[in-house]
């Protein structure tokens, strides 16, 4: 009887709790009012939980589990069946911030739709499918060796700012709406652009204040003040001896006091732990947590075992106060209330976005449009392009038929992908296209697979065994036989085998191999998740990766001897699961067979460059010329250069389609290639965009958002963050300069007519500039305006302050108006120790690239 009374009392208390309308449950109140009330109901331990990126549910208050970490760099990342747009550095080449807004409006729709679908299915809120997206990356791509430069909008602060603002506006939705569609994030704050290998220990204590204010901070300031970005992510490294996530100068004096940022600061993942594991500025997790919070970091991202869960212990030790913690939890809860994720879906418009918007016709068209606009023609000798849609064409190269290369990094998986080979074949009959990979990206050998020589239990291939547990325990749920090189993924909700869950599963792959001869073989394997390779019961490689990176593992075998191979795999940490495996012997590249195959074919489209298996974030795989995801030189890998030379020496017309997220020193290729098209990583429709340009169905208009240097010799110490000698603003000896790109027509820029040539420091200058299409095809020019302060001895030679895409019909002239706001004349003033518009004479340069020969100039006097 007592138990029944107690149960009834508990049920009555629960009913009363939820029938009572607490202020935080009232959607009519402001997010701040609701957050303040909710804080009053929380325990200290619950407050600490809310400050972790994986924020567990608090059922007694109706707070659901929430994940702060999703990615939307160029489409919703780490999810299948989404639209994959070009990599950001490629989109920057479009100089089209209006189109960029449309793209990220689409990305936010797709993210909401996928999130809504998951909620409707009762699936747990998890990493990479949430309403907080850590995008855009607005770091300055100051050094072409940086592997993550592909994620940025290039080397120029103004271009990065313009593009970044539109990304944020597209992601977050209308500024006057009650709810935010998503929360966007400006990262990585600040002075961050490699090297990847030292980012957890690097200390930058000699950054010139002019470089800081003119180069490294402007984009972050623009996103805070012009786009009202809701999150800023602090970076890994130290600035002036303090880790960025514990740096009061960055997070308090600049971000909060000068820029008046009111929203969330989130840490890069593991950055708080770096305080005591790498930077050695804190003694342990408790001190690191309190240091991060005091400095201004509101949410900690950590792989496992969040340091911020130690905050109650920090309060107990007197390292921090609960009142200080409340200040940070307030911002956390305000962000969640702004999303409407604690309210009834019926009153949140974005909760109604259906799954049918994902990769719809409009979004596919946006992906193709942006891929076309990103195409940047660097060389076109004797107008070899566009190609004719007749006769035979050879398509050669390691990137010609590679789908994942097109997707870039921090990507989702599309419904379908058009490779460059597919695109070219669509313009001709298949019988007129000859394809051969030709060579690898980097390795000067090719692997002859021995996979078909394996057998187990009398059956060819590998035996695969699966468990729906992450530790190879419990009942076996599936057993299959794999006869081709292994390449499995859960992307797009694909099971590894029938009955195998998409998460929390493990697998074993085993076979026997009899060596045909004594030799060195190589295993080529990679995985997202836990992976371990055994040979005859001995472990030869073990890793736990968050993305698939192919490792090359040499192993000596003896003739006639049998070897038992076994691989163990487990899906962990909410990542999509992937595994790839092949093995065999390596043989030297020989172009004799290739050239014999190409007899009778005059034109070769060579599709090469790099890929995200070579350049990217903190990668453990190192190849010659690459280190930890960065490059040690910027030359094209030797094996590709040799292939291009062989093709040229055979008398072929060589069209080089380069796919990369960074600049390559093409000095030899300008001689061996008749045309060079920079295609970046152009997304799901990239192959069609490339083909449209090659065959003249689209007139290229892309312009370089980064400098293409002549050689690695022009580069400074990678860890030196001084801008001297870097980018178009501080060097003028480029192979292909910032802002450069060819068209199939020609343009002439007339003399600018300024509205006035003398202004005061709060006035806008309006320029009217005629742009003439002097060729025979309609085309698009990107008019660029640069500003330099005359007699500025240590400033940039010029800096971009305006641009506009201009469509001009053949033989016509279009007047273009560009406004230079007062901030266009703002530079760092050493006497005032700040950015300022100061009196003096300014040179305004305008034209079609940053190269002096492509620019005209006029003088403006600021009174």
Write the CATH homologous superfamily of the largest domain.
Glycoside hydrolase, family 3, N-terminal domain
CATH architecture of the largest domain: Alpha-Beta Barrel
With helices defined by DSSP (H or I, 4 residues minimum), what is the helix count?
21
Radius of gyration: 28 Å
Task: List how many beta strands DSSP finds.
Answer: 41
Straight-line N-to-C gap = 90 Å
User: For the record, what CATH class of the largest domain applies?
Assistant: Alpha Beta
CATH topology-level name of the largest domain: TIM Barrel
Which residues form runs of ≥5 with pLDDT under 50? 1-19
Structural class: alpha+beta
The overall average pLDDT, rounded, is 94
- Give the overall form: globular
* Percentage of β-strand residues: 25-35%
Helix content: 10-25%
Main beta sheet, described?
12 strands, antiparallel
Number of domains: 4
Quaternary organization: single chain
Domain PA14: 457-599
Keywords: Hydrolase, Signal
GO molecular function: alpha-L-arabinofuranosidase activity; xylan 1,4-beta-xylosidase activity
Signal peptide: 1-19
